[in-house]
């Protein structure tokens, strides 16, 4: 969690504890931790853990802050979580119990989709190294908006670059990859743009089930590519 996001959540906790009957000791008991840990948390000497936020909201009797709230707090900047890696052909086991704190980027909010969640994906592999006019390379970060947040206003069309999720084995394994869309009358094709011939398109018919039985879903629309220089 970034420093900006942490301070934002701490301000929310401080305000909540000003309510009648809400105390640091009561919050500590609700979380199952020692009272001094709350004191350290509010002084910035202890990290706020992601899985603690819903429990804190429960004790304070208020909804946790939203990404939109955080954007406003940051003066138009968004704190964007890096949610995983996109790599064509790499099915990874889904760990629903992963409570680790994601890395984040702080970037200007997406002016075209200001109310949509922004997500970041680390890029691995060479499946989009020949995309025009700008390739997407290993080491890049694809900054996206969640497609389900904009699906009612944005129809998939030719040329869009998206993050596609394929799942198999009842959802226990998934692949995230970046592809470019080609739409035909009876099907949608998600194409790699690569100099490596091993990468093949995903062909999806009207029912959005790939012809090999793997479930396919567009989960994000790629909006920008960033790459930080190493060593800093």
Characteristics of this structure?
ten-stranded mixed sheet, 2 domains, 6 helices, 232 residues, single chain, Umud Fragment, subunit A, alpha+beta, 434 Repressor (Amino-terminal Domain)
Written description of the protein model:
The chain has 232 residues and is of the alpha+beta class. It has two domains: 3-65, 434 Repressor (Amino-terminal Domain); 76-226, Umud Fragment, subunit A (Ribbon). It has six helices and ten strands, in the order H-H-H-H-H-E-E-E-E-E-H-E-E-E-E-E. It has helices at 3-16, 24-31, 35-42, 53-60, 67-73, 147-150; strands at residues 77-86, 92-93, 104-108, 118-123, 141-146, 161-168, 173-183, 187-191, 202-205, 215-226. Strands 1, 2, 3, 4, 5, 6, 7, 8, 9 and 10 form a ten-stranded mixed β-sheet that branches. Strand 7 and strand 8 form a beta hairpin. Helix 2 (24-31) packs across helix 3 (35-42). It is elongated, with a radius of gyration of 21 Å. The two termini are 18 Å apart.
Tell me the layout of helices and strands:
Layout: H1 3-16, H2 24-31, H3 35-42, H4 53-60, H5 67-73, E1 77-86, E2 92-93, E3 104-108, E4 118-123, E5 141-146, H6 147-150, E6 161-168, E7 173-183, E8 187-191, E9 202-205, E10 215-226
Parallel strand pairs: 1-4
Antiparallel strand pairs: 1-3, 2-7, 4-5, 5-10, 6-7, 6-10, 7-8, 8-9
Estimate nothing, just give the exact number of structural domains.
2
Total number of helices: 6
CATH homologous superfamily assignment of the largest domain: Umud Fragment, subunit A
Helix content: 10-25%
Average residue-wise pLDDT: 86
Number of strands: 10
Principal-axes shape call: elongated
Order of helices and strands: HHHHHEEEEEHEEEEE
Computed over alpha carbons, the radius of gyration is 21 Å
Task: Report low-confidence residues grouped into runs of 5 or more.
Answer: none
């Amino acid at each position: 969690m970034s420093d900006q996001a942490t301070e934002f959540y701490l301000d929310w906790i401080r305000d909540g504890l000003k309510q009648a009957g809400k105390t640091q000791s009561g919050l500590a008991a609700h979380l199952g931790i020692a009272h001094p840990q709350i004191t350290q948390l509010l002084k910035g000497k202890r990290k706020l853990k992601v899985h603690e936020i819903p429990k804190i909201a429960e004790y304070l009797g208020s909804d946790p802050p939203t990404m939109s709230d955080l954007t406003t707090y940051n003066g138009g900047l968004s704190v964007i979580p890096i949610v995983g890696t996109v790599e064509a052909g790499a099915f990874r086991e889904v760990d629903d119990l992963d409570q680790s704190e994601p890395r984040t980027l702080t970037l200007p909010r997406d002016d075209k989709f200001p109310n949509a969640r922004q997500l970041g994906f680390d890029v691995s592999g060479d499946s989009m190294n020949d995309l025009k006019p700008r390739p997407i390379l290993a080491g890049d970060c694809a900054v996206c908006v969640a497609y389900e947040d904009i699906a009612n206003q944005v129809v998939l069309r030719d040329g869009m670059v998206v993050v596609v999720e394929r799942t198999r084995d009842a959802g226990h394994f998934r692949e995230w990859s970046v592809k470019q869309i080609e739409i035909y009358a009876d099907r949608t094709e998600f194409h790699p743009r690569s100099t490596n011939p091993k990468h093949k398109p995903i062909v999806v018919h009207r029912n959005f089930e790939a012809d090999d039985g793997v479930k396919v879903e567009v989960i994000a629309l790629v909006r920008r590519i960033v790459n930080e220089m190493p060593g800093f």
